[in-house]
């Protein structure tokens, strides 16, 4: 596995975690819990954006592995 | 009317009156007896007993007496609600038996409470050593309540200094194989949602003995068929595991890369993930 595909894998894991958090935030009845889920979801979003840029950067670096 | 028939009629009538009076006096009469409720209870019982068994008495007088003994406690309770002094006289005050870990012998004497009584009451509260008690009070109802010393108190998350997620009451949405609509609405869910969740678990609603939804919208069921295994809820543990994996991956990338810029980026995000995990762990357990 190339670095690029590993980072891509991590990126999609985070994406899925973010989506799960979003459903949990919708499902809960408790205001405080909902707030925490939303905050963590926001953190994950920043990480996701950073990783997305990194994926683009890596694809440029290793054009031979472009998928 | 023959005597036996009259007794039957009287029993029936007084049973209804007694039922209404007990209802009217409220739950307090049932749960705890303070001085006044103790007296009222005895008198009302005796009045009914006399008038049911003795056909020579006038039942109207009986009902009149019951009405008086119903009104007295209600009035007393109303006055007690308004005035603390009144409350102290009619409902009694608690007596401190142990204060600052020391047994108050004088107070015990006043209440004619023997050492054996005290030890028995402490054992009732799961305390077998009087030295473990910080404070104990004899309530007007005759019950002893106590506060154990701090080191003997059960461990709570507050003592451990850990965060816990708030939890609201669960709603019982399935009982004996039937969906209950009102609790479902309380949890802002509907029968469609219930059907979907049950399909996910691969069980039919007829087979569910009891189903509850917690405040996070997670359905747990107990089946009639105890041999069938119900899948445990996995969503939250999976989420936590995948977040932990991502965090570990990011750390690994940071170590593996040679570009300083990428290293910083991975490190920063790995820290962010760690913070997120710390924050959310109590809510996912």
Brief summary of the model shown:
By secondary structure, chain A is mainly α.
Key descriptive features of the protein:
heterodimer; A: 67 residues; mainly alpha; elongated; B: 285 residues; alpha+beta; CRO Repressor; 4-stranded antiparallel β-sheet; DUF1657 (chain A); DUF1657 domain-containing protein (chain A); transmembrane (chain B); membrane (chain B)
List the helices and strands and how they pair.
The complex is a heterodimer of chains A (67) and B (285).
Chain A: H1 3-27, H2 31-61
Helix pairs in contact in A: 1-2
Chain B: H1 3-25, H2 27-31, H3 35-53, H4 59-82, H5 84-91, E1 95-99, E2 102-103, H6 105-110, H7 115-124, E3 133-138, E4 144-148, H8 157-160, E5 171-175, E6 178-179, H9 181-186, H10 191-201, E7 208-213, E8 219-223, H11 235-256, H12 260-284
Antiparallel strand pairs in B: 1-2, 1-3, 3-4, 5-6, 5-7, 7-8
Helix pairs in contact in B: 1-3, 1-4, 3-4, 4-5, 11-12
Structure description:
Chain A has helices at 3-27, 31-61. Chain A contains two helices and no strands. The longest helix of chain A has 31 residues, at 31-61. Chain A starts with a helix and ends in a 6-residue tail after the last helix. Chain A has one domain (3-65). Chain A is elongated and about 50 Å long. The model of chain A has no long low-confidence stretch (mean pLDDT 85). Chain A is mainly α and 67 residues long. Chain B is an alpha+beta fold and 285 residues long. Among the domains of chain B are: 3-89; 95-152, 2-Layer Sandwich (CRO Repressor); 235-284. In chain B, 57% of the residues lie in helices and 13% in strands. Chain B has twelve helices and eight strands. Chain B has a four-stranded antiparallel sheet. In chain B, strand 3 (133-138) and strand 4 (144-148) form a beta hairpin. The N and C termini of chain B lie far apart (72 Å). Chains A and B meet through helix 1 and helix 2 of A and helix 11 and helix 12 of B. Chain B: This is DUF421 domain-containing protein. Chain B: The chain crosses the membrane at residues 7-26, 33-53, 59-81.
């Amino acid at each position: 596995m190339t670095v690029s595909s590993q980072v891509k894998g991590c990126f999609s894991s985070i994406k899925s975690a973010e989506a799960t958090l979003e459903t949990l935030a919708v499902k809960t009845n408790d205001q405080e819990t909902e707030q925490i889920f939303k905050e963590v979801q926001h953190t994950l979003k920043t990480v996701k954006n950073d990783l997305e840029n990194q994926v683009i950067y890596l694809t440029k670096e290793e054009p031979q592995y472009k998928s | 009317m023959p005597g036996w028939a009259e007794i039957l009629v009287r029993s029936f009538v007084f049973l209804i009156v007694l039922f209404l009076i007990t209802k009217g006096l409220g739950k307090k009469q049932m749960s705890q007896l303070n001085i006044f409720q103790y007296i009222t209870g005895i008198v009302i019982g005796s009045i009914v007993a006399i008038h049911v068994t003795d056909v020579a008495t006038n039942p109207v007088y009986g009902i009149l007496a019951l009405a008086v003994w119903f009104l007295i406690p209600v009035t007393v309770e109303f006055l007690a609600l308004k005035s603390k002094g009144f409350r102290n006289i009619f409902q009694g005050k608690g007596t401190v038996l142990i204060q600052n870990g020391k047994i108050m012998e004088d107070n015990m004497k006043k209440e004619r409470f023997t050492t054996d009584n005290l030890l028995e009451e402490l054992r009732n509260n799961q305390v077998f050593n009087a030295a473990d008690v910080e404070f104990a009070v004899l309530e007007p109802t005759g019950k002893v309540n106590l506060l154990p010393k701090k080191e003997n108190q059960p461990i709570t998350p507050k003592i451990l200094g850990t965060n816990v997620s708030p939890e609201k009451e669960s709603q019982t949405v399935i009982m004996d194989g039937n969906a209950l609509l009102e609790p479902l609405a309380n949890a802002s869910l509907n029968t469609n949602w219930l059907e979907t969740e049950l399909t996910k678990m691969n069980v039919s609603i007829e087979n569910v003995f009891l189903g509850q939804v917690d405040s996070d919208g997670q359905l747990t069921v107990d089946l009639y068929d105890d041999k069938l295994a119900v899948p445990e809820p996995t969503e939250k543990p999976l989420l936590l595991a995948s977040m932990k994996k991502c965090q570990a991956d990011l750390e690994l990338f940071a170590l593996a890369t040679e570009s300083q810029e990428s290293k910083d980026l991975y490190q920063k995000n790995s820290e962010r993930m760690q913070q997120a995990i710390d924050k959310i762990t109590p809510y996912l357990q």
